[in-house]
Amino acid sequence: MNGPLEWIAAIGTMLAAGLIAADRGRRFTGWGFVLFCAVSVTWIVSGLTSDAMPIAAMNTVLLAINAWGVWQYLLSPKNRRVMEKMEAVQPEIEAEVEQELAREA
Predict the structure, then answer these.
(1) 2-to-39, 47, 95 alpha-carbon distances in Å
(2) Residue 98 lies in a domain
(3) Which end of the chain has fewer surrounding CB within 10 Å, N or C?
(4) For residue 2, what pLDDT is reported?
(5) Greatest CA span in the chain, whole angstroms?
């Protein structure tokens, strides 16, 4: 279990974690979950073809969790509307927070 498939899955997992950890907004995070879904499928295939059932089982569960993340961050009609409304006021709120932090310093 050390072939190109596993390396692709490992690098993709690290990139997806980085996208989510970067906290650059809901859409960015949503695409992190999309990447996590893709690499979960890769890990499942890798686990099944190399007789590593714990990896395949774990990533089957993670695939479901990450698919829920895609729904929450990219596909849910309610959350999309909330996101659109929040994006409209985000620059104003960010400027307000920066002013507050500058006063506290």
Answers:
(1) 15, 11, 48
(2) no
(3) C
(4) 81
(5) 59
Find the radius of gyration of the CA atoms of the chain: 18
Q: What is the spatial distance between Cα 76 and Cα 27, in angstroms, rounded to a whole number?
A: 12
Q: What phi, psi does 82 have (nearest 5°)?
A: -60, -45
Let me know if residue 101 belongs to a domain: no
Cα-to-chain-centroid distance, residue 44 = 18
83, part of any domain:
no
| 47-76 confidence digits (pLDDT tens) | 999 999 999 999 999 999 999 999 999 999
Could you tell me how far CA 76 lies from the centroid of its own chain? 15
Q: Which two tokens stand for residue 2?
A: 């050390």
